[in-house]
Amino acid sequence: MKKNNTEITEELVRALPKTDLHCHLDGSLRVETLLELAHEQGVDLPADNVEELNNIIHAGSERNKSLAEYLKVFDYTLSVLQEAPALERVAFELAEDQWNDGVRLLEVRFSPVLNIEKGLTLAETIEATKAGLKRAEAKYGIKTGIIVCGIRSIGAQTSLTLAELAVAFKNRGVVGYDLAGQEENFPAKDHMEAFYLTLNNNLNLTIHAGETYGPESIHQAIHYCGAHRIGHGTRTREDGDLLNYINDHRIPLEMCITSNVQTGSVNSFETHPIRNYYDLGLRVTINTDNLLVSDTTITKEFLTAHKYYDFDLDDFKEMIIFGFKSAFLPYKEKRKLVKEVVEELAKF
Ligand SMILES: [Zn+2]
């Protein structure tokens, strides 16, 4: 196909209607809000000003290049996310920030079991987060949904409880279930009961896989666990047959380029496989993972993709449509939204 020579600028990318399907609530706070909430709640953080705290948080992701180091930073953010008003606030602000960056459809994920240290019930964590997202929907018109995360390194029983929670809130704010966390030594199939419950209740399922472990993890997520989408899937290229299956079945990959470099999922921006996957026809989508921890935005991710992989405007339009097509939305609603977005993109 002929290359589209339209100049890719920050303004252009921001103006494009976009999705973010892979965004963790507890990794995407404003740093100022983290500090304010800590002051309000009497919580100690390792620094008491924006600059130092930013340095500490970003060092956890950038210098060490392992998922374990990357995940440590969440201890700080989670320390202030144990109260309903804090969850409501960060959910609202996240949707607001994403809307201002051109995101029309946002799926926010978190694991409620990590927000109950001060006595909130699991259901209350969902209610509070949903209230914040709904406030942003009413103010801006952004579409949102919640994905409940089980955690690989926390027991299977907890995953089942979280799947029950997700099912209980199906059609009431929750759009899917996910499994997140360390892949090595924590196989997804240990959490089968949670996936059975999710699927038996016709709820959407995505699983973090092939992020820091090989393609067998992706194979397991799809064939044993029934995942409809794959979080990252970076290492799909190591199994060509599986890659073809993912392509043939249009299984979306929720790719997060900056995060993939930071966690060591790939060695460098230059070696990220997204261009290769896109050229092969895979349904790749661009996502942020964590605005704060990865120090990114959806616009930055697109600009990074342009810089390193030379995607042009037509490629971006196609990937944006992949994003909307991959959303956990009812078909009728999705079809209408995709049509609107196609018409809007035609103006660029
Ligand atoms: Zn993730």
Walk me through what this model shows.
- The protein has helices spanning 10-15, 31-41, 50-62, 67-72, 74-79, 84-100, 122-140, 156-168, 192-200, 215-223, 240-248, 257-262, 274-280, 298-309, 313-326, 331-345, and strands at residues 18-24, 103-110, 143-151, 174-180, 204-209, 229-232, 253-255, 284-286.
- It has one domain (10-345): Metal-dependent hydrolases (TIM Barrel, Alpha-Beta Barrel).
- Helix 9 (192-200) links the parallel strand 4 (174-180) and strand 5 (204-209).
- An eight-stranded parallel beta sheet has the order 1-2-3-4-5-6-7-8.
- The protein has 348 residues and is an alpha/beta fold.
- Helix 6 packs parallel to helix 7 (122-140) and helix 8 (156-168) runs parallel beside helix 9.
- The model has no long low-confidence stretch (mean pLDDT 95).
- It is globular and about 60 Å long.
- The structure holds zinc ion.
- The site of zinc ion has 6 residues, from strand 1.
Helices and strands: which structural class?
alpha/beta
How many strands in all? 8
Order of helices and strands: HEHHHHHEHEHEHEHEHEHHEHHH
Terminal residue distance: 18 Å
| CATH homology group | Metal-dependent hydrolases
Taken as a percent bin, the fraction of beta residues is: 5-15%
What is the C-alpha radius of gyration, as a whole number of Å? 19 Å
What's the helix count? 16
Strand line-up across the major sheet: 1-2-3-4-5-6-7-8
What is the typical, i.e. mean, pLDDT? 95
